[in-house]
Specification:
The protein is built from four helices and six strands. With 139 residues, it is α+β, with helices and mostly antiparallel strands. The chain has one domain: Histidine kinase-like ATPase, C-terminal domain (Heat Shock Protein 90), CATH 3.30.565. Strands 1-5-6-4-3-2 form a six-stranded antiparallel sheet. Helix 3 (54-69) runs antiparallel to helix 4 (103-116). It is globular, with a radius of gyration of 14 Å. The termini are far apart.
């Protein structure tokens, strides 16, 4: 399963690899619903540090929450990487697909995320789920 949405040119990337590593925060959390609030807090903080306004911060928090819920489940872990890029924030997540990733709940989550971020992809291959979102400053 692969889902991709982008409202920007393919070559619109972030900073160079060295700059990217220096500006990234990586966290690993259990995939239990009790720990998803940590992902929301970190997403809000990363978006605020990237200079997004209140609406942008809320959008990133919502997107990360919805996508992490697709990788949540007992015994699962989620690794998140938050990177401040020149014009906003990028978040990547890796984990196992949870029970919610397919069906109506998964489709609703992906629809919500696509509505609030500038770039978005979510895919599941070989029992690995991966997502990437980008939220840019409003112009």
């Amino acid at each position: 399963m692969k889902y991709t949405m982008a409202n920007a040119p393919e070559d619109a990337g972030g900073p160079a690899r060295a700059d990217r590593a220096a500006s990234s925060v990586v966290m690993r959390i259990p995939g239990s619903a009790d720990f998803l609030r940590l992902a929301r807090y970190a997403a809000a903080d990363a978006a605020a540090r990237a200079g997004l306004g209140l609406d942008g911060v809320d959008d990133v928090r919502l997107a990360v929450s919805e996508l992490c819920s697709l990788m949540a489940g007992p015994g699962l872990n989620i690794e998140l990487t938050f990177v401040a890029v020149d014009d906003g924030v990028e978040v990547e997540g890796v984990g196992a697909p949870g029970e919610q990733h397919g069906g109506e709940n998964g489709e609703l989550a992906r629809t919500l995320v696509a509505a609030v971020v500038d770039e978005f992809n979510f895919d599941v291959e070989a029992n690995r789920a991966r997502f990437r979102i980008v939220k840019r400053h409003e112009r």
